[in-house]
Amino acid sequence: MSIGEVLARLRPEFPDVTISKLRFLEAEGLVEPLRAPSGYRKFTPAHVERLRFVLAAQRDRYLPLRVIREQLDEMERGERVVGPAPAPPAPMASIPMASMPAPPAAAVVPQVRVELGDSRLTRAELAERSGLDDAGLEDLEQYGLLVPTANGYYGGDALMVARIAAQLADYGIEGRHLRPYRATADREVGLLAQLVPPLARQAGPTGRAQALATVHELAALCAQLHGALVRQGLRQVLGP
């Protein structure tokens, strides 16, 4: 199936889902579609069931992506997932490959979004949900990796930054080591910011929603590019 066909299958149950959302979940490692020689994504029924599980867990139980990923890993190991959950996805190895997909369909403006980006967290909530203590949060703020809003709250993207930083800390990587990521992100924002405001102005009353969908898609593509470049560089370090 193409990503547009997957969207058509999921939308009756999840009317707010968009192609940008599916690409975001792919960038976060929650689904790994196959790739045709032409570069188009190829999804099997098992991929669709996995996406259905993720979307239902976000919508019905408000679970963060980290917890959803852990539950998927537990089910793949044959472990029991505690608490109400949608039916587990089918094993991917038992599903045949899909046929060559058509080009992606156009994204549809979402009506409701239940995403990390919509979160509104206090500092204490951020610490609790990320696993960082106050010193760890201060370290990230010192180097510009965490920035509260004007009213002192933190969004879902700040939560994601804090969680990733907490995992990197296990490898001895501290906030000062992550300063180049802040600089790289600022350069990417400068490059891409010129694309979003014109879209918002040209799209009429739904312009902001379409612009936000574009932001998600651009961020997902940049994340994929960055990850591919890092993996490429590290493989060169390992050598043949």
Description:
- With 240 residues, the chain is mostly helical.
- The protein is 54% helix and 2% strand.
- It contains 10 helices and 2 strands.
- It has helices spanning 3-10, 19-27, 45-61, 65-76, 123-130, 134-142, 156-169, 179-192, 196-202, 207-238; strands at residues 34-35, 41-42.
- A two-stranded antiparallel sheet has the order 1-2.
- Strand 1 (34-35) and strand 2 (41-42) form a beta hairpin.
- The longest helix has 32 residues, at 207-238.
- The model is unreliable at 83-118 (pLDDT under 50).
Residues in helices, as a percent range: 40-55%
Radius of gyration: 19 Å
Shape: globular
Measure the end-to-end span.
35 Å
**Which strand order spans the largest sheet, edge to edge or round the barrel?**
1-2
- At CATH level 2, the architecture of the largest domain is Orthogonal Bundle
Average pLDDT score: 76
Q: Main beta sheet: strand number and arrangement? A: 2 strands, antiparallel
Strand content: under 5%
The count of domains is: 3
What is the strand and helix layout of this fold?
Blueprint: H1 3-10, H2 19-27, E1 34-35, E2 41-42, H3 45-61, H4 65-76, H5 123-130, H6 134-142, H7 156-169, H8 179-192, H9 196-202, H10 207-238
Antiparallel strand pairs: 1-2
